[in-house]
Amino acid sequence: MKSSTQFVTEKKIGLYSYALLAIGLEIFTLVNARADINKNQFLIVSVGCLGFYLLLEYAIRFFVNTNWTAVLSVIPGLLLFLRLHHQSSDSMVIYGILIGAILRLFFSYVPFRERVLLLGCFPLDGIVLYLWFFQDSFRENIFADKLLLLCLVLLTLAAVQQVLYEKNQGAYPFHFFLLIGMVIIFIPVREKPIDWTPVEKAFVKVADTTKHIYFYLEDMFDSNTYTTGYSSLDVTGGRLDKSEKPQLILTTNEKPYFVYTDYENHMKKKIRRNVYLEGGRGVDKTQMVKFINFLYQNNLDAEAVKVFSQPSKLKLEYVYLNTADEIAPANSVLLSNEAGQVTAGVSPNIHEKGYSIQSAYIDIDYGSPYFMGLLNDSAALDSRNIPDYQTMASYVDDIYSLKFSDIVTEQEYNTILTEQVDNSKYLDDGKASKRLKELALDITADATGSYDAAKRIEAYLRQYPYSTKTLGGYDKSSTMATADGMADIADRFLFDSKEGYCVHFTSAMVTLLRLSGIPARAAIGYRYVYPFDEQDSYVVIGSCAHVWPEAYIENVGWIPFEPTAAYSTAAAYTWHRSQSEDIKESTESKYETPYSAGVPIVAGAGLTKSKERGDGVQVIKLVALVVISILFLLCLLILGNILFRKIRYKIASPNRRLYLDVAEIKEILIKNNDITITDRGILTDYVKLAPEELKSQIQAVINLYYRMEYSEATEAVISEAESNFVKNIREELKKYSN
How many Å apart are CA 264 and CA 251, to the nearest integer? Predict the structure, then answer.
């Protein structure tokens, strides 16, 4: 049985484990901005598994109490991990099982464990304070983060008073702090909280002033290192440093993921949404008309359009940005701020922190096989068959439920139709070298159209490794702002340094597209991938800043591409939608490269009844596996303990067997009389408990024991016959058991 001290120690292990996991997970997500981790699920599963191992160890100690009990307690969990590792898509649960086992073993065998449990919370406090104030962590409304802070407060209070009170004299027990924590968690929150607004405003004002000073001062010093964040195309492609500064706050009522059915295993799954936030574009009405006409020319109804596009809304709030550009989702159809509707891509004034813009846009699944098939066939469309304004307005209402007159007036529509599109500036390849021209020709030699050529270039470039420690063009003054600058950056990237980041990949793709006769341009802004967790708002940090190429596809308009190796292509984020009838299929597989990156898909909600039944059977099987493994382990321990005792008794000397027999006789007498006795070390106390007909024999056993203990060495040896006599008395005594 475990003592109260051991019980308290295990509670501390649980709190420390939670704190370690939460802090480690936060650091991991900061380092890996694309990490898709459900914090609540992972932390609760990991600590829950740790608790399970502790309880199992508690049970195991009834049968064996050695240094190996912690190892034995994690065996069922490891079996479950091996069972699920290759058969489940829910990696949070799988690795939660493994992490719980690692923590159990760590806290069992770490040197100076008590010292670690006493003082370990203080460095954890320091890490949390740093992450809070300097990385803006733990500021979202996530239950896991609240629980982390509560754990650290309880551990710190308990540790401080243990340090202050020598030998814990006068100190509150750890149970007291656990009770405080439970009260804090379950106490109801008042409907009208205390109004801390004045204090908060004062604090925010001081903090914002400090951050603003730091933000603007750091940009005053020129260096050869660039920091990620929103900027113009006036970048040279030199060494890059990642920035975790908040740049935008996104607010939407829509889910951050799409749910689809995986028809291979008939399971519901989720795929994260992603959005390109372009700066300086505003509302491109010409692009909107082009795209709608493309849909119309393909005779797509609302059901077909829904496969790869849908209307969406998004609010963007500026944080640490120093720009007059309007940053909005690609394919925006309506933009507005406090002053009213926004049409231009650039404002006359620099936007201050807190500036917000509302956007309505068409969210397009560029990785949809159906849509990609339409793009491949776009050149065959009759661009002259353009509907009139009223027909187009009715069509937009049918497919998107949008009022076309709010987006484009009849006069603007007619003007767009009559204007000749001039893309000559997007065909300027600058001073492209001969080897660049030859490369463009080689890549697109067998292309069947503009879209096919663009996809081939995209796939080719994705073979180059991603690196932020690289060089720009041969000319240090070359930037993406000019065709010459992009050609220079592309040339050095493709043939010399052969590694780079988005500036290099985009410069290369724009240049290669233009050399192939396809109008191309670079877009600046952010590429943001939503988390799986639905939140009140989503923070876009500096490292989300991105530059990507767009190609002008005949009869369609501008289409974005993703040649940068560190980012997944559109196909990795496809919504997995399709129609009931046959649809056009793309040839996406021929564009895949060894460097194309996928994003893990996590199982989602909204399961069908048949799926629920299947999950129920799966859960029952897993529970059965754990129960069977535990029972097998306990049976093994019991049988092993019995076998160990028998072997130990058999090979023992007569003196040693007498010790073992007397110890068992004492246990039998106590059990037969169903009493609790204080062992004073006087064996005659046990004679009184023996049956009348065996008292003399029990006394004889005790005499033998005392003779062995207190007689001279030569007389202390117990003979084989005397040992058998004691064994027979022990066996006879068992017959009197209740």
Answer: 35
Is residue 712 classed exposed, middle or buried when 0-12, 13-18 and 19+ CB atoms within 10 A define those classes? exposed
Closest by CA to 284, choosing from 362, 397, 365, is: 362
Three-state SS at 94: helix
What 3-state class would DSSP assign to 341? strand
Residue 672, number of CB atoms within 10 A of its CB:
16
**In the chain, what percentage of residues exceed pLDDT 70?**
77
More confident call, 162 vs 605: 162
H helix or E strand, kind and range, residue 386: none
The residue type found at 527 is R
Length of the chain: 738
Q: For tokens 């914002």, what's the residue?
A: 208
Cβ atoms 518, 226 nearer than 8 A? no
C-alpha distances (whole Å) from 665 to each of 680, 705, 725, 730 are 16, 12, 13, 6
Check: CB of residue 538 under 8 Å from CB of residue 317.
no
What is the end-to-end Cα distance of the chain in Å, rounded?
24
pLDDT digits (tens, 9 = 90+) for 155-208: 777 777 777 765 555 566 666 666 776 666 666 655 555 565 677 667 666 766
> What is the pTM assigned to this prediction?
0.56
How far CA 717 is from CA of 255, 652, 705, 721, in Å, comes to 83, 13, 10, 12
Rounded (10°) angle between helices 143-164 and 4-31:
130
State the pLDDT at residue 475.
92
